[in-house]
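Lecture notes, part 5. Sequence design as translation. It can be helpful to think of inverse folding as translation between two languages: the language of shapes and the language of residues. The source text, in C-alpha cells, appears below.
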C-alpha cells in the first residue's frame, strides 16, 4: 500500500502544475496558493459536479451569487463581529502566534521539537480573542463608517436574499439556495497545504424547511452529501460521519455533523452539515426590520429552519488527491498515478500519435483531438517518447489515452490505454467520441479500495 503523505501531494501538485505557492517571485505569502492549469480544470470539475447535484438535478434548489463585501450590518446581525474569533496566544520570546485551543499542534519558534510553553525560554501571553474577519475600506474615506469585511462564509449572502428568492423564484419550504464563491478568514494557524488557508472557495447550500421537518432533513443531507463523495469514488474506508457534542457546536446550531476524511494529518473535517434552526432568519429580521418568514396562501406563517451542508473546494481537492495518489512498479519502473474518478480528472483523455513525425499518425490524432475537445477537456501530446507521455498523463490522472500507430494507417483504428489497469484495446477511430461519452457516464470505483 502506498504511503500517502502531504509532502508527496504538494510535490506532485507543484511538479505537474496543479498548485504553486503564491507570489513566489517575491518570496511567497505564507499558506497562499495559486492554481495552475490542471488545478483550475480539477477545481472547475468539482464545482460543476457539486452544482449539478445541488441545482441542475433537483427541483427544489436554486442558485445565487451574492457579493463578497456586504453591508457590515450583516455581520453584526449574524454574530460574526462579536463571536467569529479564535483564542490567540503570543510568545513574547519568539514572536509567534498560536491558537490557544490547539497548542498541542503548535511548534515552539526556538525549539520546534517542543510545544509552545514547553521550552524554558517560552514566554506566553494570556489568551485573547482574535476576530478572523478581514477588514477593508469601501470608497475613498478611511473612517469607521467606511469599514467593511470580506465575507468569511457565503451563507449570509443567501440569508439576506431569502425574501427575493421566496418571491421571485416562487418557492415554498422545503427549498434551498446554493452558492459557490470565495470566502476569507484571517486564520491564525493556516497550514497543511490547502487544508487551512485564508482565502478559499466555499460551496454552501441553505435548505429552508418547516421547523418540524428540520431533524429529518438534517439526516437526509448528511446521507446525501456522504453519498456524493462515495459516488465520486472516494473510498468509504477513508470517510466517516462524526456528530458534534454540545460543547463543540456553533452558537447557532442545534445539531452539526462533520463528514471527515482520513487526510495524511489524521481524521479531519471535510464538510460540515448543520441544523441552524431559525437563528439566521430571525437575527436578520430583527436587525433589518424586514420579515424573513414564509406566509402560506392559507395564512400559515412561520420562520423556516435551515439545514446547511457547507464545504470548500480546497478540502475536497486535497481529499480527492490523497485518495487517488498511488505509486507502483510496472516492468521494473516506478510510476506515480492519480487514480481520480474520471469525472474529477482534470483531463479526460490524451490523444497521442505514436510517431509524431509520421504525417498519417499525426494528422489522424490531431483530427481526433479536435473532435473530442468540443465535448471534453482533452489533451494532444506529440513531444517525447511514448512511455514518458503515458507517465505524464498518469501523474495528472488522465483516465484514458488514445494512440494512433501503424495499424491506424491500415484500418483506421486506435488503441485505448486504461490508466488504472494499463490494458489496451482497439477501437475504430470513428467510434472514439461515443466510446468516451459512454466511459465517462459509467460507474467507477477506486482500484485502491
Ligand atoms: N456557513 C458555515 C460555515 O462556514 P465552517 O465549518 O466554518 O462553516 C464550512 O466552514 C466548510 O468550509 C468547512 O467544512 C471546510 O470544508 C471549509 N473551510 C472552513 N475554513 C476553511 C479554511 N480556512 N481553509 C479551507 N477550507 C475551509
Amino acid at each position: 500500500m502506498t504511503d500517502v503523505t502531504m509532502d508527496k501531494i504538494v510535490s506532485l501538485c507543484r511538479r505537474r502544475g496543479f498548485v504553486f505557492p503564491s507570489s513566489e517571485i517575491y518570496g511567497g505569502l505564507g499558506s497562499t496558493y495559486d492554481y495552475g492549469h490542471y488545478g483550475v480544470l480539477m477545481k472547475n470539475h468539482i464545482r460543476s459536479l457539486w452544482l449539478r447535484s445541488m441545482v441542475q438535478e433537483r427541483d427544489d434548489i436554486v442558485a445565487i451569487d451574492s457579493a463578497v463585501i456586504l453591508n457590515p450590518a450583516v455581520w453584526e446581525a449574524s454574530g460574526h463581529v462579536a463571536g467569529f474569533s479564535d483564542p490567540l496566544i503570543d510568545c513574547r520570546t519568539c514572536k509567534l502566534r498560536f491558537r490557544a485551543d490547539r497548542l498541542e499542534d503548535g511548534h515552539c519558534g526556538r525549539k520546534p521539537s517542543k510545544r509552545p510553553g514547553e521550552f524554558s525560554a517560552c514566554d506566553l501571553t494570556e489568551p485573547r480573542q482574535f476576530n478572523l474577519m478581514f477588514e477593508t475600506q469601501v470608497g475613498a474615506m478611511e473612517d469607521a463608517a467606511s469599514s467593511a469585511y470580506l465575507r468569511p462564509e457565503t451563507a449570509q449572502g443567501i440569508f439576506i436574499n431569502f425574501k427575493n428568492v421566496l418571491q421571485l423564484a416562487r418557492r415554498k419550504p422545503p427549498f434551498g439556495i446554493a452558492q459557490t464563491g470565495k470566502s476569507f478568514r484571517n486564520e491564525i494557524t493556516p497550514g497543511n497545504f490547502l487544508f487551512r488557508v485564508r482565502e478559499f472557495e466555499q460551496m454552501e447550500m441553505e435548505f429552508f424547511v418547516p421547523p418540524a421537518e428540520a431533524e429529518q432533513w438534517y439526516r437526509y443531507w448528511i446521507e446525501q452529501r456522504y453519498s456524493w463523495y462515495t459516488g465520486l469514488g472516494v473510498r468509504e474506508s477513508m470517510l466517516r460521519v462524526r456528530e458534534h457534542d454540545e460543547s463543540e457546536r456553533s452558537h447557532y446550531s442545534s445539531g452539526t455533523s462533520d463528514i471527515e476524511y482520513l487526510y495524511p494529518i489524521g481524521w479531519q473535517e471535510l464538510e460540515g452539515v448543520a441544523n441552524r434552526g431559525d437563528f439566521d432568519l430571525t437575527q436578520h429580521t430583527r436587525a433589518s426590520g424586514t420579515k424573513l418568514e414564509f406566509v402560506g396562501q392559507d395564512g400559515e406563517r412561520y420562520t423556516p429552519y435551515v439545514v446547511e451542508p457547507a464545504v470548500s473546494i480546497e478540502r475536497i481537492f486535497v481529499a480527492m488527491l490523497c485518495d487517488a495518489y498511488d505509486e507502483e512498479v510496472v516492468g521494473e519502473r516506478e510510476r506515480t498515478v492519480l487514480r481520480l474518478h474520471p469525472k474529477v480528472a482534470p483531463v479526460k483523455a490524451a490523444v497521442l500519435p505514436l510517431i509524431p513525425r509520421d504525417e498519417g499518425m499525426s494528422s489522424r490524432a490531431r483530427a481526433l483531438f479536435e473532435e473530442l475537445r468540443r465535448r471534453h477537456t482533452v489533451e494532444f501530446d506529440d513531444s517525447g517518447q511514448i512511455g514518458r507521455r503515458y507517465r505524464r498523463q498518469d501523474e495528472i490522472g488522465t483516465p484514458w489515452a488514445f494512440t494512433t500507430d501503424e495499424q491506424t494507417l491500415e484500418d483506421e483504428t486506435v488503441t485505448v490505454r486504461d490508466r488504472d489497469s494499463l490494458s489496451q484495446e482497439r477501437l475504430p477511430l470513428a467510434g472514439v467520441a461515443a466510446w468516451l461519452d459512454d466511459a465517462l457516464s459509467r460507474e467507477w470505483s477506486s482500484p485502491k479500495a
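The translated text above is only one of many valid answers, since several sequences can fold into similar shapes. The first helix runs from residue 6 to 15.
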